[in-house]
Amino acid sequence: PYGAADVPLRDVLRHIGLALRYFRWWYKKTRIEKKSAFIDLLCAVPLQQIYGCPLGGIGGGTITRGWRGEFCRWQLNPGIYHYETIIADQFTVCLRCKGQTVYQQVLSVERPSTLQGWNWGYCGHYAFYHALYPRAWMVYDLPGQNVVLTCRQVSPVIPHDYKDSSLPVAVFIWEVENGRDEDVDVSIMFSMQNGTGTKEDRGGGHWNEPFTFEKEGERVTGVLLHHCTHVNPFTLAISAREKTGTGVTHLTAFNPAGSGREVWQDLLWDGRLDCPTGKSSPTAKGEVTAAAVCASCRVPAKGHGTLEMALAWDMPRIHFGSKEKLHLRRYTRFFGSEGDAAPALSHHALTHYEEWEKKIEAWQKPVLENSQLPSWYKSALFNELYFVTDGGTIWVELSPDCCAEDLRG
């Protein structure tokens, strides 16, 4: 491979002046102005081949999941990427037969130093990942259980739909296939830390609260995680859809930097969470907090079941680095700009994802069924569209009285 030793000395000497000018600019930007360098050659992000299909619509920020299921890249603030894998952001499965828990496992191959009270180290041999943007599938053949879980991840990126395609949401549809000769009670717990894995998570003042949102006979329950930063505050929402045969419980707050044993034992005891009422206390400086929501159903012998969960984030009012002007995101046209839209966004996602999938399939089907196109072309054509959402796209809402100067870059 081509390395520094292969660069001729004359080329090194020729670029010394450029290097000095760059270093002066870099030092002023990062050390004096305390800003990120948009081209940072001294602190470059190392290449990691871990990234999968990003979550979210167009222009509202994205959260990227890796192909191993981790939440590993965050692009909520305009143009700013945080490459942080948050260990507490996980899905956990609990299986119960005849009133007894027979299997409980975090669906992650990691073996972290935190949350050691949880059962980690899922064997990757029993899992499979497939992506066709804006959807992705993760299949877990639970070892020794004769139960197969398929998590279908859906984001609202839909041609000619300029409402739902702007929404900062994603839906996780868990299909359960029970190959046993007896009924199985299946619970999926979705846990998430309040924040994006940066030092701001420990800045203090963050808090969580449970919510229930009901509209047109459809009920969604979950937890709001309020991240109260000075610039661009936001709210995360984890939730599940309540319906006949599906129960939803929650845990408002727990410490993701501890052992997590109380959360694990709570789920292990009866496949449900305790559902405490009221808000959590704001975190003190140096503390982090997390929350969890759990969806449960009974799957008959040789039968199938479905659990529907969602992740939404509401950062309606944004400033760029200079903080000179306030901008509203596009989705605020439909859900408001007061920072209280996360419950409505969650409800909309969980009650409309089936319509999204029909439109996505109709869009992609002619290409996928065209036998004259090679498979690599079909894959690249759709999967490389991830850059439309994850490439730093910001979709803002303009006021009716905006002028031409407002439209200039």
What this model shows, in words?
By secondary structure, the chain is an alpha+beta fold. The chain folds into two domains: 1-44, no CATH class; 56-397, Beta-galactosidase, Chain A, domain 5 (Distorted Sandwich). 19% of the residues lie in helices and 33% in strands. It is built from seven helices and 19 strands. The strands form four sheets. An eight-stranded antiparallel β-sheet has the order 6-7-8-9-16-13-12-11. It has a five-stranded antiparallel β-sheet with strand order 5-4-10-15-14, with helices on one face. A hairpin with a 6-residue loop joins β1 (51-55) and β2. The protein is globular. GO terms for molecular function: beta-glucosidase activity. Pfam families: Glyco_hydr_116N (PF12215).
Q: Which class best fits the helix and strand makeup?
A: alpha+beta
The count of β-strands is: 19
- Cα radius of gyration in angstroms: 23 Å
As residue ranges, the low-confidence spans are none
Write the layout of secondary structure elements.
Blueprint: H1 9-14, H2 16-32, E1 51-55, E2 62-66, E3 71-75, E4 90-97, E5 100-106, E6 127-132, E7 135-142, E8 147-154, E9 169-178, E10 184-193, E11 207-215, E12 218-227, E13 234-242, E14 246-254, H3 261-270, E15 290-299, E16 304-314, E17 317-318, E18 327-329, H4 332-335, H5 342-368, H6 375-383, H7 387-390, E19 396-397
Antiparallel strand pairs: 1-2, 2-3, 4-5, 4-10, 6-7, 7-8, 8-9, 9-16, 10-15, 11-12, 12-13, 13-16, 14-15, 17-18, 18-19
Short synopsis of the structure:
This protein has 409 residues and is α+β, with helices and mostly antiparallel strands. The protein has 7 helices and 19 strands. This is Glucosylceramidase beta 2.
